[in-house]
Amino acid sequence: MTKKSHKRFAYPWGIIVILFMYPAWGIIASIAFFIAMVMGSTAPDYLEFGRIKHRTFTHLPWLWVFCYALGVSVTSHFDMSLIASCIVAGICLGAISHWVGDLGTPMGVPILSTKKRYSLNMWKTGHISEIKPIIMAWLAVIALAGFKVLHPDL
């Protein structure tokens, strides 16, 4: 996916999380999460610094899950603010959305090791077909928003 498509794919992911977490987080932390999520959606590419082979180490999903767990644990342990935790969570979830977006491309992404890539081969980078995952994500937002309306206590 292109940088622009990764960001467009991250918007609905962020909205889905905020839909359920806003009551607990409030407006400031939710906005911080959303901005961090959109920024994190391009993190696996810009962290390559032109020195790491594309779609290798920075595209390992378990690395971002580990960063999330470590970051949220550290911010909680040291009584850092909710906003700091939301920023860490947003960046990491944005990176995971990046991985999901790249999983659908022919080049694919690594899962456990950088030695082998996996691909669903559903859309091509830079092609109009990149709209598919974005539309699917927005449909998920609509479905979950409807669910939230029917079950406001969740």
Automatic annotation (TrEMBL):
<feature type="transmembrane region" description="Helical">
    <location>
        <begin position="82"/>
        <end position="100"/>
    </location>
</feature>
<feature type="transmembrane region" description="Helical">
    <location>
        <begin position="12"/>
        <end position="39"/>
    </location>
</feature>
<protein>
    <recommendedName>
        <fullName>LexA-binding, inner membrane-associated hydrolase</fullName>
    </recommendedName>
</protein>
<feature type="transmembrane region" description="Helical">
    <location>
        <begin position="59"/>
        <end position="75"/>
    </location>
</feature>
<keyword id="KW-0472">Membrane</keyword>
<feature type="transmembrane region" description="Helical">
    <location>
        <begin position="131"/>
        <end position="150"/>
    </location>
</feature>
<keyword id="KW-0812">Transmembrane</keyword>
<keyword id="KW-1133">Transmembrane helix</keyword>
